[in-house]
Design brief:
The protein is mostly beta strands and 139 residues long. It has one domain: Quinone Oxidoreductase, Chain A, domain 1 (Alpha-Beta Complex), CATH 3.90.180.10. Helices cover 9% and strands 29% of the residues. It has a five-stranded antiparallel beta sheet with strand order 6-3-4-5-7, with no helix packed on it. The longest helix is centred in the N-terminal third of the chain and has 9 residues.
Amino acid sequence: MKAAIFQGNKRYLIVEKETPRVTRPEEAVIQVKACAICGSDIDPYFLSPEARGYVSGHEPAGIVTEIGDSVKDLAIGDSVVANAIVGCGRCEFCQKGIDSFCKNRYPTIGFEIDGGFAEYLKVPHYRAIFRFPSESYLR
């Protein structure tokens, strides 16, 4: 698959990478159809001279192509959006719906693990994926 790797100094490099696959029961893979550009994507672009070597993009939307055995409420072919942050689901912050404060959260998409500036994206937990209506334009 093709992916955009941030190189620093206002440069991205388009590279071939292995297409991600589900390796854990709670994961899902989506084919990225769109990914927004956020301020936290722009700041490194303008301000960082050093290479980062990661696939950024933490506001992706696409089509589910693979799901792990324990994934609930998602099916292959669903149009979805993925949240960059997914908490443990058990702590007091997660119980209040503020996963971003979770101290046991999964790696953040587009920062700690590869993000949506690629053709495919592995999401570390299905709770970070939300379905669009069936008439979604992502198809």
